[in-house]
Amino acid sequence: MFQMNTTLSTQSGWIALGIFLISLYWLSMVEGGQASLVGLPPVDQNMYKESHPMAFRIMSTIKEGDCLDRYLMGRQFLVLALVFVENLCAHAIDPEKKILGMPLIVNKMFIDTGLGVFFMTAMIGKISAQVNASRCMLDYVNNYFAYFTMQVARIIEVSGLLHCCYPVQMIFAKLSGQPLVSKEAPRTTGQNVFFWLRVLISTAILMFSFAVTLSALFNGQTTMWAGVPEWLTVVLFFSFMSVVGMLEGMQIAFFAVAQMRKEDLEVSPWAKKTVNVLFAKEGRNIPAFMIGRQMCVTLCFFIIARVTTVKLKDNDDNIFGVSVGAQKFFETGLLGALITTIVASIAWQLVASAFPLAFLSTPLTYVLLQFCLGLEWTGLCQGSWVIARIHRKLVKFKRDEVYIGTAEERKAQAQADPKSFDEDDERETQVVPGHLYPGPATTPQVAFIPLTRSNSDLNEIEHDLKEKREQIERMRMDEVEMDC
């Protein structure tokens, strides 16, 4: 960046660095926020109303009607947009320039291929954030930045930019033979007109985005690596979008089948093989897949960003003869981010939520599962756990058990006091046809997977509980002294 060798650093390396770090930190909040916001609905809000007021405020909004689905849809575009911005900040214009005097082969490995920014994004912006948020959901979103991020995701959805996904949602919910469940009253005539108007506008924007991107691809006007033929670039574009789509859908399908009986899953040879691998090793393959999947998806995002980001050659005319301002907007890569969000992410998730078993019954699902497990096994992103631990210590996150007890304790309390238990909350943790629920923040526990905790987990929980008890004792002593 400080060599002014990236798209956003041509004016100032400091500006590019600032934008990159902001995007990386914001991405960590988006990823961690999702883990918290989909994991907290089953928990009685009154249990953390006093201790975590901002988390309570966020969840009060999320639990209104279909707000969780809307948040998840807007959040998906926000993730892609931030990744594309990072690509603009870090993608080297001239890969031949040496960095820190290192050999050119190092440049090729980490800068030209994009692996350097991939590792930073995967470990800092994604995996470590999800690790902390899955254990410390309340502390992670108990701040104004989490509230701001949630509202930005909602604004993206309200804007109508992604509304062309809703007809897809309706179609696949109907094909699944189950009604599309909503927690809101039917739309009025005026609301229907406004809804379908946004659907039409969103569809038009998507078609225009495809037209611009494909025109740039066929004319070699993108940041794709030199020497790759135009026809192969187009093939790679659709291939990597398909891989992302399969991985996004697999996440939904795996959590959906975790709610089914084991014998019901063996509907085909490939489904049986996939299930056997997924639930092997006492369920440890599930979190391993999630980490490997995150690595694979992140890498595909950067490749797609490289393939679709528009960059005109010298003396090239603007695409479709648009103005200079419009051409500059094309070169931000946001059109590619929109295409990837709708076509390679949301649409596949909706299909998987309607037909999870069909997703398991393909050899590609099995191959991708094994590939993701292999990626996790390499340990390339094991640094995420170190980063997560450092972050957790710096900001003093505590496990959720310290504030609200374990799931077993909350269940026992609910059985003792049924009025404190909301039946609708349990349905928040289930995959429903036509919805984008990505699975709980922790590993799903099915009948044939025992729940276990490591000694380090138990020691950490015990330490946090001890600190909380000492804090409460100090507060009591202070109150006694004030009364005296």
Helix content: 55-70%
β-sheet strand percentage: under 5%
Query: Shape from CA axes?
Result: globular
Give the uncertain stretches in residue-range form.
421-427, 439-452
**Total helix count?**
22
Radius of gyration: 24 Å
Average pLDDT confidence is 81
What does the secondary structure layout of this molecule look like, with pairings?
Blueprint lengths: L12 H27 L13 H10 L4 H24 L13 H9 L2 H21 L1 H4 L3 H15 L6 H11 L13 H30 L11 H28 L4 H4 L3 H10 L6 H24 L15 H7 L3 H21 L1 H5 L2 H16 L4 H13 L4 H5 L2 H10 L6 H5 L27 H29 L1
Q: Please, could you describe this protein's structure?
A:
By secondary structure, this protein is mainly alpha-helical. Helix content is 68%, strand content 0%. It has helices at residues 13-39, 53-62, 67-90, 104-112, 115-135, 137-140, 144-158, 165-175, 189-218, 230-257, 262-265, 269-278, 285-308, 324-330, 334-354, 356-360, 363-378, 383-395, 400-404, 407-416, 423-427, 455-483. Helix 1 (13-39) runs antiparallel to helix 3.
Summarize the structure.
By secondary structure, the chain is an all-alpha fold. It contains 22 helices and no strands. It is globular and about 80 Å long.
